[in-house]
Specification:
Elements lengths: L2 H14 L3 E3 L11 E3 L1 H20 L4 E4 L8 H5 L2 H4 L1 E6 L6 E3 H7 L30 E4 L2 E4 L9 E4 L4 H6 L1 H8 L5 E10 L14 E11 L4 H18 L7 E5 L11 E9 L2 E10 L3 H10 L5 E2 L6 E2 L2 E8 H12 E4 L14 E4 L10 E5 L4 H15 L4 E3 L5 H11 L3 E5 L1 H6 L1 E6 L5 E5 L3 H8 L2
Parallel strand pairs: 3-9, 19-20, 19-21
Antiparallel strand pairs: 1-2, 4-5, 4-6, 7-8, 9-10, 10-16, 11-12, 12-13, 13-16, 14-15, 17-18, 21-22, 22-23
Helix pairs in contact: 2-10
Bound molecules: zinc ion.
Zinc ion binds next to loops.
Length: about 450
């Protein structure tokens, strides 16, 4: 099976089964904009809740934050985004398509250099679509600009944040003072960010509106190496929790020439997506660059005083930064499994190919499906009462149409771990059949014991 082929199937499944739709579809869509459907929003929320629990509420050294998307534009001057957050844009002189020069070079196997002060050696680069000549590159700022208030002038310019980290740095002092924290400690945030990308690609991998998980972990300067390697370990655990295979993860150490000038160490964690090995998240030691810049631009004291030694200094920071949408995509790619010839033993379906989404239980959008064997009224009644009972604790779906084999396969396709089937015997013995997505093993369970049965399964 070709890799791009399998990716198309994942994209199709995502749309057909209510995970991710192209945005604004009835109006012809909008390039690189997507909407999360009923199952997609459950999956994404499950991932976000798991992240928040693992990195904020279950730790003693972390707190959360939810800062504004539109903030004082000076923040982006201090962070360097106004001046430097740009990509090299080139146009084709013949077909007028736009490209990122660095991507075109990478596609030809040439590692682009990051020195923006000199023109690049283009090595005879031509338009990949029509072979036409390309314009010289010009730097294109990626921040999405808007205007606050009724006047569209330079005094009312504001930006949709290009990353959530800025909100964390500017609240450093507020959090420190109000929460009485001691180093080392971290501030975490989940939220939307916006980048006016020149090119977008690969479904939800690169979009202009996206969501981020970001942590700024503040440390004493002399301790950074120890904390960096701890975060490296924790990030790997997170990937395994998501169901990503260790073999599909690659740690890419960024060399000194390609790092931001203030960073002393950066690792990109790359994932082998069906469309290629691409960055899933980054881990960077950013020294005291951010707090120092905000100190300079705001004129406020953002230092920390050690309560024991009384030593006063600007904390250094380790930054794990992840894309939420990229994580959703990696989870879908990792879970997607095709079984040639199918797993079913019934004659009607034994020659077909079956799709099973092997999502970790904690992430599955629907935990249990309730399937009455027939639509007959007395079975429906019992099934509905089981549905409402289970819904008190879990996300449960009800399905009474089509054959039971087809209904099992529908649930396998969306990753539902368990199906509960209510048959005519259930009316007599008050038991139901519970079927396991991965083993296809079937247990006969008393209706009164279902809650404790699933408590055990989901813990
Ligand atoms: Zn062209």
């Amino acid at each position: 099976m070709e890799q791009s082929n399998s990716f198309d199937k994942i994209v199709n499944l995502a749309k057909q089964r209510g995970f991710i739709y192209p945005s604004s579809e009835i109006y012809g869509g909008l390039s690189a904009a997507y909407d999360y459907g009923p199952l997609g929003v459950e999956l994404k929320n499950n991932i976000k809740q798991a992240w928040w629990k693992m990195f904020v509420t279950s730790r003693a050294d972390m707190v959360g934050l939810d800062s504004a998307i539109i903030m004082n534009p000076k923040i982006w001057e201090a962070s360097g985004h106004v001046e430097n957050f740009s990509d090299p844009l080139v146009d084709c002189k013949s077909c007028h398509k736009r490209f990122r020069e660095d991507h075109l070079l990478e596609n030809k196997g040439i590692q682009p250099e990051y020195d923006k002060t000199k023109p690049r050696d283009r090595k005879g680069l031509k338009c990949p679509d029509c072979g036409g000549e390309l314009t010289p590159a010009r730097q294109f700022n990626l921040m999405l600009k808007t205007f606050l208030g009724p006047l569209e002038d330079s005094a009312s310019v504001a930006y949709l944040r290009p990353e959530t980290a800025g909100g964390i740095f500017v609240n450093f002092k507020n959090v420190l003072d109000s929460m009485r924290l001691r180093l080392p400690f971290g501030i975490a945030q989940i939220g939307k960010a916006f980048r006016n990308e020149i090119t977008t690609e690969n479904f939800i991998f690169r979009t202009r509106e996206f969501e981020q998980f970001e942590i700024e972990y503040f440390v004493k300067p002399e301790d950074w190496e120890q904390h960096f390697s701890e975060w490296q370990k924790v990030m790997k655990q997170w990937c395994l929790f998501l169901g990503l295979a260790q073999d599909d993860l690659v740690e890419h150490e960024i060399g000194p020439k390609d790092r931001a000038f203030y960073s002393k160490r950066t690792i990109d964690f790359e994932y082998k997506f069906p469309f290629g090995q691409k960055e899933l998240f980054g881990l960077a030691y950013r020294t005291d660059y951010d707090l120092t810049q905000h100190q300079k631009f705001s004129g406020q004291d953002l230092s920390y005083t050690d309560p024991i030694t009384k030593e006063k200094f600007t904390p250094h920071v380790i930054e794990p930064s992840l894309g939420v949408d990229r994580t959703v995509l990696a989870v879908l790619c990792a879970a997607y499994t095709e079984i040639e010839g199918g797993r079913s033993t019934t004659t009607e379906s034994n020659k077909e190919k079956e799709v099973v989404l092997r999502l970790p239980y904690a992430l599955a959008p629907i935990k249990i499906a309730v399937l009455p064997l027939s639509k007959k009224e007395h079975l429906s009644e019992l099934s509905r009462s089981i549905l409402m009972e289970l819904k008190k604790k879990w996300v449960v779906m009800y399905d009474e149409t089509a054959s039971i084999g087809k209904r099992y396969r529908r649930q396998d396709e969306i990753g539902t771990p368990y199906c509960v089937t209510i048959d005519f015997e259930s009316l007599e013995d008050h038991k139901v059949t519970v079927r396991d997505r991965d083993t296809m093993q079937q247990d006969r369970v008393a209706i009164d014991d279902l809650e404790s049965y699933f408590n055990t399964k989901f813990n």
